[in-house]
From TrEMBL:
Lineage, uppermost ranks: Bacteria, Bacillati, Actinomycetota, Actinomycetes, Kitasatosporales
Residues that span the membrane, as ranges: none
GO molecular function terms noted in the UniProt entry: methyltransferase activity
Keywords: Methyltransferase, Transferase
Domain Methyltransferase: from-to ranges: 60-153
Presence of keyword tRNA-binding: no
Designated name of the protein: Methyltransferase family protein
InterPro entries hit by this protein: Methyltransf_25, SAM-dependent_MTases_sf
Transferase found in the keyword field: yes
GO biological process: methylation
Length: 242
């Protein structure tokens, strides 16, 4: 949950009543102290899995936020790392927290749906960003990722198994999404942030439609569900060689 260093309720209310871009500009200084940031355990497990598959050349952190994914890329990429986000506030915080060790990092302010790059990356990662995109936007978003990868390049992101229907977590996520839908029905501009709008099948269909070959890597650090499926896995989408 929120740490004492995180945003106060009033700050969250102001952010939620703003646009997505303005809201994250305001949230950026305290973002790392909120539950919205991807946990270090997921980042470390992703880095370990990519290290076993690498090394890679150039990497891109898509919707980088405060740069947690940049740290992952700098562990597995040997050449350069690029981070893109449309929030200037997030980029400022990410730039300030970057450690000196590792490949150089280029920070780019841009919309993920219109990436200003050619096919120059071997690896693209993204952490916790897809709740800011509606299901109908996914094919275009993934087509953009496909266009900036070299042939054979990979697009990787972690997914957590959905909570059991009827559980407290499931109810909280549905309640959050319902509150956001009400907010967006009565106020403009919208603040797109839904936890349940994009489902696993949406990702797979959109990735396949965009030309990717899709596979899944279990992250055994998080264990297994009763049905034998992993609690957390990596979606690994590869741009074909030809």
């Amino acid at each position: 949950m929120f740490s004492p260093e995180g945003p106060r309720l009033r700050e969250l209310a102001v952010q939620a009543l703003s646009s997505v871009e303005r809201g994250y500009d305001l949230l950026a200084p305290k973002f790392d102290h909120t539950p919205f940031r991807t946990p270090d355990s997921v980042l470390d497990a992703t880095a370990s899995a990519l290290w076993r598959a690498g090394p890679f050349g150039s990497g891109l952190d898509l919707c980088c936020g405060t740069g947690a994914g940049v740290d992952v890329l700098r562990q597995v990429c040997e050449e350069t790392v690029t981070a893109v986000d449309f929030s200037a506030g997030m980029l400022d915080v990410a730039r300030a927290r970057t450690r000196p060790a590792g490949p150089p990092v280029t920070w780019v302010r841009a919309d993920a749906r219109a990436l200003p790059f050619g096919p120059v990356f071997d690896l693209v990662v993204s952490f916790g960003a897809f709740g800011h995109f509606l299901p109908r936007e996914l094919p275009g978003l993934f087509a953009q990722v496909h266009s900036v990868l070299r042939p054979g390049g990979r697009f990787v992101f972690p997914v957590v198994a959905p909570p059991r229907p009827g559980s407290l977590t499931h109810g909280m996520l549905l309640g959050f999404d319902a509150a956001m839908r009400v907010r967006n029905a009565v106020r403009r501009p919208p603040f797109v942030m839904y936890y349940r709008a994009v489902r696993f099948g949406d990702w797979e269909r959109a990735l396949t439609r965009s030309g990717f070959l899709v596979e899944y890597w279990a992250l055994p650090e998080f264990g297994w569900r009763r049905d034998g499926s992993p609690r957390v896995r990596l979606v690994v989408a590869r741009r074909p060689e030809a």
